[in-house]
Amino acid sequence: MFGKRRQKKQDRSQNQSPRQTKTRLTFEQLMEKCGASKDFVSFTKSDKHPFTISYYKSMVNPDLVHKDLIPYLTRYSSLSLKELSREIPVENIEHTSDVQTIMDSLLTGSVIVQSRPGKSDCLLIPAATTEKRQISVPETEFSVVGPKEAFTETLEVNINMVRKRLPIPELHVKEVTVGKLSKTRVVILYIDGIVNMENVNTLKQRISAIEYDHILDSSYILQMISDNQYSPFPQLINTERPDRVAAVLSEGKVAVLVDGSPSALTGPTTLVEFFSAFEDYFLSWHIASVFRMIRLFSVLFSVLSTPLYVAVLTFHYEMIPTDLLGTLIASRSGIPFPPIVEAIILELAIELLREAGARLPSKVGQTIGIVGGICIGTAAVQAGLTSNVLLIIVALAALASFTTPVYQMSNTIRLIRFPFLIFAQFWGLLGVAICSAFVLGHMLRLTSLGRPFLAPLFPLRMTDLKDALFRLPFNRQSLRPLQMRPEDPVRFNSQRGLQKNDIEE
């Protein structure tokens, strides 16, 4: 009996979805609902041929309404709506009686014009206000040399900044609307003839399948369309630089821009790209390659330095050189805690200083970070809570984590240090090796839009190593990254790229 009741409820819920149970609004109900808002304006011009104008004054440009629309409406009020749409000097005017279309246009900054009050057919005249922030300097991806432009929160401006760097008709823009409440515009950019359309279709399908009520930033999209949403590693690059977006599009990748977000998503991506600053391409290839190797070494040092300290002092103190042993004994004399406790205390203190500096105003945050770090570190050593050797190691590890060019990967490095500490406390160097194997195995299974995350290291692609761990000269990079499977893998003729056509005297 109870099973039959449960089955009936399930059948009823399947046959009547929440969207189907909602009754469709009529035009009068829509006007009544909109009229409950203080910023909704609706008035009738009572001449020989009256017409009604309705709009949200917070969404439209008042100069356009009062200087351009109303004079034309007054002059041609005797015309029908279709004839009137040809006389008003505004693009994309729509004549419709569909209530859903009217509501969507009204909420995006359009003006509704009715020939008579109460009639459902009307003109939808775009008059949205264009408030926007000025283009500024990149903050999280600042570079000493190179362009100094960053994305803004306006979608059209961001697309313009990309098209300015790629003025070709093959640059395609596809738009999708997501978010039941926010109705956020999301665009996908790619270069036709270069990109692998499988990547474009995968990205379009994942974005279209998003079921969420509001999308406020590209970070929402990043979390929802990732191949593995439970992984701490970001599988798409979040960048605020239009020059970087233009560069990856020319490699055969795909970019995503979100209205209201000052950053773009690019993919498919690989692990080595998170340690490649875009400034590397503005420097000579020798210097850029050295800087990349320094960043990779810094990441390994940031993750492994403190766990190795805990493992050696807990299980493998016989590995400490004799000259260094006296220094460690002197620094740890009088400390009542084991190495793992003092390591966690210092790591948490560093994280507290980071969060405090990030949440406070910029000038105050810098002061808190410097003064707080000096005061807390000195007081902890003098109070006998930690050793000065570990304090130096933790401080260097924190500095090393800041060398990561992409902010999302920097947060991941901060997070995975703690599992390494726990494994080092329980099993020493064996625990560090086990945790490293877990992390490496996870990254081997990880993909970005279906492409291997560790490429070109695994699977090994020798051609793509020209711009991976190090960067060769531009005339040596005649092919696009093969792991992206581009339709046109050739950038330029390799033989011509190696020639120097100097004038012979």
TrEMBL record:
<keyword id="KW-0812">Transmembrane</keyword>
<protein>
    <submittedName>
        <fullName>GerA spore germination protein</fullName>
    </submittedName>
</protein>
<feature type="transmembrane region" description="Helical">
    <location>
        <begin position="389"/>
        <end position="408"/>
    </location>
</feature>
<feature type="compositionally biased region" description="Polar residues">
    <location>
        <begin position="13"/>
        <end position="23"/>
    </location>
</feature>
<comment type="similarity">
    <text>Belongs to the GerABKA family.</text>
</comment>
<feature type="transmembrane region" description="Helical">
    <location>
        <begin position="365"/>
        <end position="383"/>
    </location>
</feature>
<feature type="region of interest" description="Disordered">
    <location>
        <begin position="1"/>
        <end position="23"/>
    </location>
</feature>
<dbReference type="InterPro" id="IPR004995">
    <property type="entry name" value="Spore_Ger"/>
</dbReference>
<dbReference type="Pfam" id="PF03323">
    <property type="entry name" value="GerA"/>
</dbReference>
<keyword id="KW-0472">Membrane</keyword>
<dbReference type="InterPro" id="IPR050768">
    <property type="entry name" value="UPF0353/GerABKA_families"/>
</dbReference>
<keyword id="KW-1133">Transmembrane helix</keyword>
<feature type="transmembrane region" description="Helical">
    <location>
        <begin position="296"/>
        <end position="315"/>
    </location>
</feature>
<dbReference type="GO" id="GO:0009847">
    <property type="term" value="P:spore germination"/>
</dbReference>
<dbReference type="GO" id="GO:0005886">
    <property type="term" value="C:plasma membrane"/>
</dbReference>
<feature type="transmembrane region" description="Helical">
    <location>
        <begin position="420"/>
        <end position="444"/>
    </location>
</feature>
